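#struct-pred

JT: dropping the chains for the assembly here, can someone run the whole complex?
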Amino acid sequence: MILPDDDHFHDECGVFGVYAHPEAANLVYLGLYALQHRGQESAGIVSVEERYMHMSRGRGLVADVFKPGDIERLKGSSAIGHVRYSTAGDKGNTRNLQPLVVDTAHGGMAIAHNGNLVNAVELRRALEARGSIFQSTMDTEVVVHLTALSRHAHFAERLVEALHQVQGAYALIAMNQSRLIGVRDPAGFRPMVLGRVGNGGYVLSSETCALDLIGATFLRDVEPGELVVIGPDGITSYFPFSPGGPTRQVAKRNLCVFEYIYFARPDSTLDGISVYDARKRIGSCLAKEHPVEAEVVVPVPDSGVPSALGFSQESGIPFEFGIIRNHYVGRTFIEPQQSIRHFGVKIKLNANNRVLQGKRVVLVDDSVVRGTTSRKIVKMVRAAGAREVHVRIASPPTTHPCFYGIDTPNRQELLASNHTVEEMRQYITADSLAFLSLEGLYRAVNGRVGGYCDACFTGNYPIPFPQDRRPVQLTLLKGA
Amino acid sequence: MILPDDDHFHDECGVFGVYAHPEAANLVYLGLYALQHRGQESAGIVSVEERYMHMSRGRGLVADVFKPGDIERLKGSSAIGHVRYSTAGDKGNTRNLQPLVVDTAHGGMAIAHNGNLVNAVELRRALEARGSIFQSTMDTEVVVHLTALSRHAHFAERLVEALHQVQGAYALIAMNQSRLIGVRDPAGFRPMVLGRVGNGGYVLSSETCALDLIGATFLRDVEPGELVVIGPDGITSYFPFSPGGPTRQVAKRNLCVFEYIYFARPDSTLDGISVYDARKRIGSCLAKEHPVEAEVVVPVPDSGVPSALGFSQESGIPFEFGIIRNHYVGRTFIEPQQSIRHFGVKIKLNANNRVLQGKRVVLVDDSVVRGTTSRKIVKMVRAAGAREVHVRIASPPTTHPCFYGIDTPNRQELLASNHTVEEMRQYITADSLAFLSLEGLYRAVNGRVGGYCDACFTGNYPIPFPQDRRPVQLTLLKGA
Amino acid sequence: MILPDDDHFHDECGVFGVYAHPEAANLVYLGLYALQHRGQESAGIVSVEERYMHMSRGRGLVADVFKPGDIERLKGSSAIGHVRYSTAGDKGNTRNLQPLVVDTAHGGMAIAHNGNLVNAVELRRALEARGSIFQSTMDTEVVVHLTALSRHAHFAERLVEALHQVQGAYALIAMNQSRLIGVRDPAGFRPMVLGRVGNGGYVLSSETCALDLIGATFLRDVEPGELVVIGPDGITSYFPFSPGGPTRQVAKRNLCVFEYIYFARPDSTLDGISVYDARKRIGSCLAKEHPVEAEVVVPVPDSGVPSALGFSQESGIPFEFGIIRNHYVGRTFIEPQQSIRHFGVKIKLNANNRVLQGKRVVLVDDSVVRGTTSRKIVKMVRAAGAREVHVRIASPPTTHPCFYGIDTPNRQELLASNHTVEEMRQYITADSLAFLSLEGLYRAVNGRVGGYCDACFTGNYPIPFPQDRRPVQLTLLKGA
Amino acid sequence: MILPDDDHFHDECGVFGVYAHPEAANLVYLGLYALQHRGQESAGIVSVEERYMHMSRGRGLVADVFKPGDIERLKGSSAIGHVRYSTAGDKGNTRNLQPLVVDTAHGGMAIAHNGNLVNAVELRRALEARGSIFQSTMDTEVVVHLTALSRHAHFAERLVEALHQVQGAYALIAMNQSRLIGVRDPAGFRPMVLGRVGNGGYVLSSETCALDLIGATFLRDVEPGELVVIGPDGITSYFPFSPGGPTRQVAKRNLCVFEYIYFARPDSTLDGISVYDARKRIGSCLAKEHPVEAEVVVPVPDSGVPSALGFSQESGIPFEFGIIRNHYVGRTFIEPQQSIRHFGVKIKLNANNRVLQGKRVVLVDDSVVRGTTSRKIVKMVRAAGAREVHVRIASPPTTHPCFYGIDTPNRQELLASNHTVEEMRQYITADSLAFLSLEGLYRAVNGRVGGYCDACFTGNYPIPFPQDRRPVQLTLLKGA
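RK: done, full complex below.
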């Protein structure tokens, strides 16, 4: 069994929560469906019904994890859910499922977390030193412990006390028997939005596309550093990390710019900016920065499609589906022993010969990570008869790994970190290769420079991080 | 559990066969992957190893049916496979799996069949009257019986004797311990191509896209009425149904024109015509026949994409992804009890508001069957802010059911069979609605009128058929 | 994965049928539960509801094969079922499931068969020669074909015509939409009983123990050569194989005597003789024939228990459970690589040291087949401290294989076929070894000699059989 | 789906551990097989390989939970395992699986626990108050927390500090990366033995029968209050709960006397007393205390068998299997809607009519809990023709629930707690009913009175316990 070629950065999670709706768990189930692109390894839902917490979690896609009976058993009018893309280190670790649910002195609580804490290991060591025990290797368990340790009277206060101790990226949804809380870290690395649903209910989601599916009304983005408490007394907003007290003041915003390039679904809107529009402007910008003589603009589907369309509209070169994607591909498949050319990529992508034959082709992709897939695609396109293959990448070269919740290779494995663009062009065997500039990216996304985390392109990490990504190894608990 | 909205005609099968390759079963497995769009209900592979036939079949997608151990057990250098879209009548009937495999006086044989026989019930009754027993409700079992009854010495002769007795549409692959046979009915309703693979091996497939995946070389289409026998002595071609003897003379070709509109994958080439190209020309033709003032051309994904692109290129109106498709949707999903607007369609398609808001939208879809989904999509697009919605359909109105291997509703359920275009427009709530003309369709596909089966648009059935589609009911065998 | 040691002859099947009961399928399910000892490889139920036949079959124990939903779907007031112990040749062949169900010119029919036909291969060859096709390698499929070929008007007549052509051992239950038929071959090799259930319903079963469970009343044994037709017009009995016409005359009875020794459940009654009583008398007889000085009589559980009790009561030597059986053992288990002494037997049987230590032990077992397990048991008993181990076998030496529906090793593998008793004693390392005499067996079972098939002890085969058991190999169809 | 009738007290667990064996996990797997009678709801194994802990746990029988791949993945030379009979309160709670595994400041640790802590809720509340979080509702999690909180340098010391705080019954096995620890509570409620295996390895087990299976040598019982530490430096024994310091002094032993009556396997030896021997002496004693005129002694299988044999040998009344048990019964089965007499008991037990007909029957069972099953059995025996049914129970009346690790009904549900023996006789419809006296029980087990916990017969609870068994309800976490 091998995995289909997929040389991308991967988002680690999507979160979704519903408050005060008679079918809370079912709406969360649908919300996770719409957020499935943010994580395909495992999924989970926890609902609360008075002081009982009901849970259903498992490995696999939302469509496979939950059966009708599961949703029925998830009673209660509030529920939260999580989809997860597990990182290389914990593949096969069936304990790392979310939402996390525990019983504490204050009753049950559940947390669904998107992000990564840079001081998780240190905090874990300290917690263990005072006698805390851990059942998973997830950062989120640290937050749960810190919350449980707090002496504050209110759930939100306890959570805030916990979050004051952690550093890193997080958009998390917490729930106890009476409240639903959504919070983004002060930098706002990972997105979260707030909506209304049904008759007085509320919803929190990583992206707006999940609101659309359940017929919820978008209210607004949860702000960086904001904590939204939803309870029987309505919604209250706090800015607990703000230096000037819990009033609305966010010093610096650092939403992950890669959400616009690849992670978010094109029909989502982040911080008021349509992802689809941003991707089209990126393509347009790319065409201006790196024009090329060609007969056809071909996207690498699906992620390259909007930027290729933007490139085509700017350049006037016709847009065509020169590569067709097979959407029935499973997570793994059985490989023949005898080699087939460009096999790993062909299971998912096939060259559409008629479109390519004899043409000078502009091939638009969202990013180059290791370069292995790009190389196979270029070769496949050329084998289909393309006269020239000009690769245009809808982002700057990715030279640095991410420590804020995205699964990226080590720096050594990032092609751009130790190769010039010309070396990269040779490696992927293209006739030309060009990347969008950082300025172009900013211009395309929001028209002005700044306000995003661009560490993977620049190495400017907004939050200090350990030298080595996983400095201390935990006692890994494996299996289920 | 409900099914996501999908108001389409459905192809009933895809077939694939490999001869003389050390990894025959694995190549068939990959071929079925590439043909998955032709049938998602069940899949099966049979391989032959000397006089043993190994079989693996099951319900579900190729990725779910076959495990690595299954492929290993399918030993032998020849193998055939099948993917199936079961018709309404036999859903849940786990006995109707293909390929069929039986033991006969001449040894084992296996058959994979794409199509539908119009005289299957009569033949079955006659066979039963002489004592034959049936284990499924599939037409194909009739062919197997007739082949087994033949007194001819050679496998191909026995199969020909059987096929001389059946009427209808078929593209089938038969295999015994020494030979692989591909055959299309004299009208050539369903497609089949021939290719080379590996070192002296051959491959038969419903479509060329499956050849691409396994690195096979396309040789040619199997002709209507042609029987291709592949054996240790190479390839031999026969035209056994030709009035003037088994020489190459095909009176009339009737390839299903809907293959170009919807069934085939866009990267396939049928009868020398690229499906993608045909769809783009269809869109272009549609723009010429039914122009409209608008700001944006939006496809209903995925099937409407190439024709929408053609429409856009012809009309000059920008092409945009105004509807985003979620490709993670399973075959069924759990529905909330409380109604959500346009729910069935939203689980798969979401309006991309920014593209639609305030715009006059040309919505391009491949066909209208019952109209129920079209209505939901139009409403969803309008709810997203579209000012006007002009629906353009990339085919003529479908007024008649198919009896040649496609799953279509009864005539009464076909919206176009008993409504004018204006009535249909009102039903789907569009501002305007227009269909491609039959002439336009022919022009777009091959430049001249004729040579295709267009019964679903015209009621001109190339082969006489029973008044009622299922006149005599069989003793249905249910379960597994 | 290995199988627990189990060196026994194995019954190949149990059959059960219910007519005219609102919960027919559920009663069959329970009946199969009670007949599980007759076959643990697969199980199946077919019910008839007007002209529909519903089927549920699978590999494994009754408790695992059928889910509540399955039984619900098996609608109708008649149903038949089957449990199967597959023979070595077709292990893993998931096509050989029973009951067989087919559609014929006369409508659907289903058959559940216990037994073995000695001329099945010849009949199959002849059927294939006239064009019949086969989907399994089971004898039963021959009967189905022959029945379908008959021109007779009534189901029973067609079945009789078929059975007139077969030779061998069978107790079978056939069902069509209006009738349930039970039939035993003229020799009556395999058992079958008739009972009443509910309000006017009837039941057919391999053994009486299954009647007890469902609260049915035992009416009588179905006689050798008898065909019982149960229909809307009540019960009719025929003797179609009788030379003097279909009146009650059975020339020779040949019930398998091994049913009393091992196959049947001790709480069943066959031909008016309680199996438990017969086994106790066998033990008593064994004690008379082969007395021994000892302190304790220990059965090899579970099959040796009643004869050990009889031995104890006759000899006055105390009966003790010196070997304890673990009933939680699955069909296979994972074996450690490092060897453990007597491992294969220990997973199921453990020596009860306190009972054995320092004792002269009479170990009573039902039979010796290959002798491998006996050897391990003797060694385990001795390792537990037994001073002497005297093995007493509750049957004569098994020198010949069975061709009438029992899974036995080849003659070469039968320890008794090529070793003297003294050689066998040495092999199993016992202090003494003795077998019940054939006369003793007859005396114990029914008081007089004759009336049973004893071919496995004598080589006197009541029906001629082919030289070699499987002279012609079929095209084996493997997999599912 | 219903459960087969089984009106017994139920042991809650079995534990097993292996130290220093190359196939530790496989031996644990086999050990759990042999301990399956102590718990059938779930099973789990944890192995340690340097600082990694590998885990495999699941619901169901050992044979179903572990696949060959699972055992392979459980690498390392030490492993512990657990089988569990879940109590009514947490059925369906898939989080309550053992062994528990956590990561602490001192590295990973795993615990498998047989027993019940009477102050678990208080301790849990206190732990939660200081910020500890809980992931299950099992007592064992309290022990894990307390161990993690200890500041002691050594694993054994930390565990001892934890155990000093708990009150109740426990036999537990704890493991970290270098040591395996077995410990019994000071009263010694639950059993545990120590053995040697392989070349220098050690094994801990709830019962000796598991040692036999893996070929281990029995060394000795772990003493009440003893803590056995097995490590690279060999075995060390401590008595940390002894008032006079950690030297060998056990004030009072309170092994659960019901282990001899029902829980333990007959081939096990507890505290030097063979369970089989004890049961036979119990039957003998019962015959002396409550003689009866009868023709046959019949056990309720399997648990009543040894005491029935003892009764028979003492009384001289022949022992017969008048009730036959079907060992293929699953944990649940599908019940017909129409009532069948004595149904729940018949699925497992069938009357052997020939043995019972016209006889005065002594029916020997191990205990009467609710009396519902006894009543059905008596009726079934009488329906089979028994002239008189005299029930003899191999234990005193069970009048009080257990709080030390056994699943018993509430006091109100215990038939003996609020009925005289005569009332009980009438309820179960027996001709006579008699229970073994407490003195008789003691005499039978070890020859002298005292040394066991007999609270379920006397209400003399060795450890104070809360008024109500579950005084404070936890936030139940449900699901997986």
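JT: nice. Chain C has two domains: 10-254, 278-448. Confidence is low (pLDDT under 50) at residues 88-92, 468-480 of chain C.
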